[in-house]
Amino acid sequence: MAELEAGTTTGMQRPRPLSPHLQIYTPMLTMMMSIVHRVTGAALYFGMLLLAWWLIAAAAGPNAYANVEWFMGSLIGQLVLFGYTWALLHHMLGGIRHLIWDTIHGFEPAERELLTFATLIGSIALTLILWVVGYLVMGGPR
Amino acid sequence: MTGSQSMRTPTRRVRGLGAARSGTSQFWHQRVTSVAGIPLTIGLLLIITALLGRSHAAVVQILGSPIVAIIMLLFIINTAYHMWIGMQEIILDYVHEEKWKLLSLMANTFFVFAVSLASVYAILKLSFGV
After folding, report:
1. What residue spans define the domains of chain B?
2. Of A37, A53, B83, B121, which sits with the fewest C-beta atoms within 10 Å of its C-beta?
3. pLDDT single digits (tens) B20-42
4. Is position A1 within any domain?
5. Which residue of A has its CA nearest to B119?
6. Per the structure, how many domains does chain A have?
7. Does B90 touch chain A (CB under 8 A)?
8. Which residue of A has its CA nearest to B31?
9. Would you call B62 exposed, middle or buried from its count of C-beta atoms within 10 A (0-12, 13-18, 19+)?
């Protein structure tokens, strides 16, 4: 009805028909991980600022580098880096899952659930392993 | 020739070009950069892990060494293109008003160029010690 009325008044500005959006679907693991893939991608986008800051500080000299080391070693810095590590690994594993799906494999119900669950567990496990290695073997960030 | 004189129908002209007016080439480029991103990300994580807790002098020396610098440069350039396409896709999904769409697409390009060129510059400076 609204469409018809709008159509008669202003032909050019008639609202386009809308398809159902997120709120009508039951949350599923594949759907949640699809959203998480995009969110981690966007977070990593801004996370590149951290990498740039670290590299520029290293190039600038010991004083600038000490500032980065201080921030990365602080509680907030460590939380950001931990989140960054997980986001990077999860986006990478999610990307591998999407590349598998691009070859039209892994679409059976059990397969796609397994792949999706594996990316989540895998990213958490790899993040923890990397941080344990970082702290224990290499001495950890100061 | 495009425009009103063209013999092509409007459908023929827009088919496959999509919201970014550039067709499906970016879909493919996103796959290429994601494949390249797998070994490069592993390389980046290994490099960072190896640099944990080291002094500034040691970090400068390692980051400036050829193999490490090349891996870092490849990671930065590959990631720059990958994240530029990715953010463009997000913008095109959520920003529909023409003015804000163009402005945010522009901001995306500026951000990616600034961040990646700054990172590349830092690596080159560490490598050549200028």
Report:
1. 10-128
2. B121
3. 666 678 888 999 999 999 999 99
4. no
5. A52
6. 1
7. yes
8. A99
9. middle
pLDDT digit string (tens) for B55-87?
A: 999 999 999 999 999 999 999 999 999 999 999
pLDDT, chain B, mean: 90
State the Cα–Cα distance between residues A34 and A120, nearest whole angstrom: 11
Distance, CA of B9 to CA of B6 (rounded, Å): 8
CB contact, 8 Å: B119 with chain A?
A: yes
Q: Chain B partners of A92 at a C-beta cutoff of 8 Å?
A: 37-38, 41
- pLDDT of the residue at B23: 65
What torsion, rounded to 10 degrees, do the Cα atoms A33, A36, A41, A44 define? -130
Quick check: is A129 in a domain?
yes
Do A41 and B86 make contact, defined as CB atoms within 8 angstroms?
yes
Mean pLDDT of A106-119: 93
Which pair of structure tokens corresponds to residue B115? 């961040």
Query: Does a structural domain hold residue A71?
Result: yes
Fold of B10-128: 3 helical TM bundles of succinate and fumarate reductases (1.20.1300)
Instruction: Record the pTM.
Output: 0.84
Domain of residue A43 covers: 28-137
Q: Which residues of A touch B86 (CB under 8 A)?
A: 41-42, 45
Mutate to test the interface with A, among B83, B98, B111 (most CBs of A within 10 A): B83
Does the CB of B72 have a partner CB in chain A at under 8 Å? yes
What is the rounded CA–CA span in Å between residue B21 and residue B2?
A: 14
Give me the CATH number covering residue A107: 1.20.1300.10
